Structures are given as C-alpha cells and as structure tokens.
C-alpha cells in the first residue's frame, strides 16, 4: 500500500483536486453559460460586467419559442424524422445483424468490411448525388427525402452495434428452436428479439441521436420553413432576429433535452452507442 | 428426417443469410455505393445535375480545382483544424481519464465528474457553434473577462478577424470532441491488470515511469484507432464552421467541406463541386484503408 500522509503526498492530492476543478470549469462553463443566458433578457446577456447568475430571472425566451407555431413545427419535424428513421433502422439492422451473427456464408468477411468502411464516407461527398436524386425523383423538401438519406448513415452503425450484441447471446438458444423443427425466422422473433432488448435500446438511442443532430442534409434537402428541423431552426433564428441571443439559447436548451434526457436515464446504452463506431 | 427434407433444410440455411441481409444491402447499394459512382460521373461532366444531357468534360474540373488557391488554402486549413483537434482531443482526453482513474479521489466525486466531463459530447454541432459564438462575441464574456485580467487590451473579434478565426473554430472543436477519447481511454485504463503496477511498485518505479512504461503502451491500440477515426471524422466537419464563421472572413476558415458546399450550392457549379467531393472521398478512403488494416492486424 502507498503511504498516504507524507506532506508531498498530500500536496499531490490537493494539486489533483485543483486540476479537476479546472477541468470541470473547462467542460461545463460553456454549457452553464448557455443555460443561464436562456433565463436572461437580451440586454442582460451583454451587461458589463457579465452576470454569472441571471439578475432578473425570466422565462420570456422560452415563452417566445414555445408560443411560436413555426418553432414548434421544427421540434415536431425533428422528433418525427428521427423517430421514423429509428424504427426503420432498428428493424432492418436487426435482420442484417441476425444474418451476420448466426450464419456462415460466402462473402461474409468482405460484406462486414464494406459496412465498417461506409462509416467513414464523407457526408459532403454523398450530398451532391443525393441532391440530384432527390430533385429528379420529385421528393425535394419532403420527409421521405430526409428519412431515406438518414437511413443510409444510421444503418452501418446500427448493424455493427446489433451484430456485436447478438454475438454475445448463446447460440444454443436459437439452435433449440431449429431442433424442434422451427425455422430461423421463428427463432429470431420468438427467442432472439425478446432477449435482445438492451441491444435494441442502445441501437435506437444512437440512431435517434444521429438523426437529431444531422445538419448538412437537412439544410440542403429541405427548403420550406415547415420542413425544417431543430438544428436548421436554430440557424434560421440567428439570421432572422438580429441576434435574439436569449431565444437562441432557449431553443438550444430545448433542442438538447432529448440527448440530456437519454443520457441521464440510460447512460449505459448511450455510451454503448457513442463508442460503437470506435470499438469493433 | 428424410434425406429430401434434410437437403431442403440445408438449402434454406444457405439462402437465409442473404435474405436477412438483403434490405440492408439494397439500401447501402442504392443509396451509398451508387451515389458514390454518380458523383464520380458528375465530376467528369459539364453542368452536371443542371442539364439533362451533360457533355463529357474530361479532367477539366479537377484542373480547375487544383489551380484554385482557395482549394489549397482549404486543404491547409482542414489539415491544421484536424491535426490540432486530434492532438488536443487526445491530450485532454488522456489527462481527464488519468485524473478520473486516480485512487486519490473519492468514488462519488469521481462519478459526478465523469458525468460532467462528458457534457460537451451531448450537444449538437449547431448548438456548440451557437454557444461559442455567444461566448466569443466581441462584447461577450470571454472578451470582457480577458480584458479585466489585462490579457487582451481591447475587444477581439475572435470569429470575424482573419488572424484569430481559424484558431477560434479549432478551439471550439477541441472543446466539443475530447470526450470520445476520455471515455475510451477510461475504459482502457480499467482494463489494465493491477499486477503490472504492483510489480512496478516492487521494483521501486516512479509514477511517471509507470505512466510511460505501462499505461501508455497498454493504451496504444485505443489511442491509434480512436485517433484515426477522429481524424477522418474531424476532416469532414461542416456545421460547426458553417455556423461560426461560414468559412470566412476572406476564406480564412474555409475547409474542404465548406469549400465544396459553396461550389455546389452558392455558385451552383455542381460539376466542380463533385470533383472536390471526389478528392475528399479519396482522402477519406485512404485513411479508412489504413484504419481497417490496422484493426485487422490487431
């Protein structure tokens, strides 16, 4: 055991705590500033010297956002698109992951490599052909365009995540179904899906977040205000109101709620998804 | 089971995986591989997308890009932005992970700090961009605190002066991206066997020697693979720069993604933008091959 009470040792412990506090300030201050600014009036935001706590606490920025049907529509669009993509992705990825995890077949290795490498395809490269396709199929400025494009980006991650999860489940469970004369399809729905809920939740969480955060395609493939999502809404707010900073911060707080909520409620699943791309 | 039944069963097992994979492969093939071929095609056409019968342009658009000083400036900014980001993501992630892993802090405090240190990760690029714009406003909190401390003499236009803009967006991206390293390294640290350190203690090793000879070599595989992924992803960053500076002022923060986007959707030169997109694709593919080879060798 290490000796704990020499003066030098105590000094190291104190220094460590000072460094931890500095780290906390670095990590959390910008977030704190967003939160506190969202409760200030627009004039107080630039008061000199800056006020750390809102001097005149007000909910006017939130009222302005939540009372505006145009902005509520941004939130609806984000929830709707992210929700739809999540359901589709999880279904399709589950089937693919089942194929990868429970069967040996020709081309399995190369398909797996293909899926891993699609994760790194630059979105900007796909943007131009997508724009061409979306315009020529007449789905520019529709939910369908966004849902289809997001699906392509979420699917590879979701397949890798789900395959990883299914590989942890013992094979004799579904082999028992085969012995009883059941098909692999029955085994999937009767045996695998019910015990895969943690994997399904982690995949859903990650898919939802990817969609919720997407900016480039939402910016380019939609045009009318009624089709815009939250990230674009925040950007529009910047142009429109000659910098209503308190409203921008309030909208940012509201736009971060799903992520914060998921993180606090399901930290385990959240981290599983966020590190999935890096840990094969 | 009769022989016929058994062979029928075997056939089913052979076809089944392809059936399960078919929806995914269809989507990836039609919406990812096909568009990649399409964009390569566009880059060799005149007035791609805009005209129904585009003529063949040869290497014209590639030549135009390579002759454009803004392209080279964008490439350089992308490299600077990416290298600085990856190096600092790694350093900050490592320092935070080591601090959190220390047995000198109380477990409750450790858990609370772990949650708080991850915070920047929970925010969308657009929101991060808006937060940093507010913080770095010439009249904002950073300027006024630095002025009070006497570090800067007058208000600085962090995002709108060519001298500081690239550093400012890089700083914002460093802040936004270190938690991936922190979380991965923290998991890695917990996986290093305790007896390595005990053996080192018996030999009388100092703390820094344990760090250099045990901790860092043990974490090396994680450091390399996360660095590669972080490099590939950071190279592709768009919204953070688009919202903070839009590539300006005077191209001083123009990166490959904003350069390509402007070619396509501000100048509507989709052919030239495609050529630029193909260049980005090739760089990414090169790095990806490297990454995959590394993962397989592991």
From TrEMBL, chain A:
Gene3D superfamilies: MetI-like. It is a multi-pass membrane protein. It is found in: Cell membrane. GO terms for biological process: transmembrane transport. InterPro entries: BP-dep_ABC_trans_perm, MetI-like, MetI-like_sf, Na/ntran_symport. Keywords: Cell membrane, Membrane, Transmembrane, Transmembrane helix, Transport. Residues 75-266 form the ABC transmembrane type-1 domain. Its main location: membrane. The keyword GTP-binding does not apply. It comes from the Bacteria. One of its GO terms (cellular component) is plasma membrane. The chain crosses the membrane at residues 12-33, 79-100, 121-140, 146-166, 187-209, 248-266. Belongs to the binding-protein-dependent transport system permease family. This is Carbohydrate ABC transporter permease. It comes from Mesorhizobium neociceri.
From TrEMBL, chain B:
One of its GO terms (cellular component) is plasma membrane. It is found in: Cell membrane. Keywords: Cell membrane, Membrane, Transmembrane, Transmembrane helix, Transport. It comes from the Bacteria. It is a multi-pass membrane protein. Residues 75-291 form the ABC transmembrane type-1 domain. GO terms for biological process: transmembrane transport. It holds the Pfam family BPD_transp_1. The chain crosses the membrane at residues 20-44, 79-100, 112-135, 165-190, 211-233, 273-292. Belongs to the binding-protein-dependent transport system permease family. This is Sugar ABC transporter permease. It comes from Mesorhizobium neociceri.
């Amino acid at each position: 055991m290490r000796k704990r009470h020499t003066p030098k040792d105590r000094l190291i412990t104190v220094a460590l705590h000072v460094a931890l506090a500095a780290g906390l300030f670095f990590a959390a201050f910008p977030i704190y500033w967003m939160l506190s600014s969202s409760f200030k009036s627009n004039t107080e935001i630039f008061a000199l010297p800056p006020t750390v706590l809102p001097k005149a606490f007000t909910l006017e920025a939130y009222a302005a956002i939540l009372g505006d049907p145009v902005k509520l529509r941004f939130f609806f669009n984000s929830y709707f698109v992210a929700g739809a993509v999540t359901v589709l992705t999880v279904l399709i990825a589950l089937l693919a992951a089942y194929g990868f995890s429970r069967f040996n077949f020709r081309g399995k290795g190369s398909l797996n490599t293909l899926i891993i490498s699609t994760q790194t395809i630059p979105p900007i490269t796909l943007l131009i052909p997508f724009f061409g396709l979306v315009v020529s199929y007449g789905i520019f400025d529709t939910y369908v365009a966004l849902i289809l494009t997001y699906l392509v980006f979420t699917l590879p991650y979701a397949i890798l995540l789900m395959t990883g999860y299914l590989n942890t489940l013992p094979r004799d469970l579904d082999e028992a179904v085969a012995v009883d004369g059941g098909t692999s399809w029955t085994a999937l729905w009767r045996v695998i899906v019910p015990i895969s809920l943690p994997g399904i939740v982690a995949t859903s969480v990650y898919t939802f977040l990817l969609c919720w955060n997407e900016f480039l395609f939402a910016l380019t493939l939609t045009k009318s205000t009624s089709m815009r999502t939250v990230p674009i809404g925040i950007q529009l707010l910047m142009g429109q109101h000659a910098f209503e900073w308190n409203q921008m911060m309030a909208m940012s707080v509201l736009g971060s709620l799903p992520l914060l909520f998921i993180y606090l409620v399901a930290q385990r699943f959240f981290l599983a998804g966020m590190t999935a791309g890096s840990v094969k | 089971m009769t022989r016929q039944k058994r062979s029928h069963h075997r056939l089913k097992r052979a076809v089944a995986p392809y059936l399960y994979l078919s929806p995914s492969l269809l989507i990836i093939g039609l919406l990812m591989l096909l568009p990649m071929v399409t964009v390569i095609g566009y880059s060799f056409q005149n007035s791609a997308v805009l005209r129904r019968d585009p003529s063949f342009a040869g290497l014209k658009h590639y030549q135009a890009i390579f002759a454009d000083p803004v392209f080279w400036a964008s490439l350089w900014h992308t490299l600077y932005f990416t290298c600085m980001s990856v190096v600092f993501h790694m350093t900050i992630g490592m320092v935070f992970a080591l601090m959190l892993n220390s047995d000198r802090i109380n477990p409750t405090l450790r858990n609370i700090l772990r949650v708080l240190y991850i915070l920047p990760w929970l925010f969308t690029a657009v929101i991060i961009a808006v937060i940093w714009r507010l913080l770095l406003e010439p009249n904002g909190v950073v300027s006024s605190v630095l002025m009070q401390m006497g570090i800067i003499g007058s208000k600085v236009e962090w995002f709108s002066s060519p001298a500081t803009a690239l550093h400012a967006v890089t700083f914002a991206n460093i802040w936004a991206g270190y938690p991936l390293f922190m979380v991965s390294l923290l998991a890695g640290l917990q996986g290093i066997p305790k007896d390595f350190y005990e053996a080192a203690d018996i030999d009388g090793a100092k703390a820094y020697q344990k760090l250099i000879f045990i901790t860092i070599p043990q974490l090396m595989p994680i450091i390399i693979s996360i660095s590669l992924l972080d490099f590939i992803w950071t190279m592709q960053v768009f919204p953070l720069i688009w919202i903070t500076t839009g590539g300006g002022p005077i191209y001083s923060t123009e990166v490959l993604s904003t350069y390509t986007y402007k070619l396509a959707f501000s100048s509507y030169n989709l052919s030239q933008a495609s050529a630029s997109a193909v260049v980005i694709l090739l760089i990414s593919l090169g790095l990806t091959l490297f990454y995959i080879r590394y993962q397989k060798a592991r």
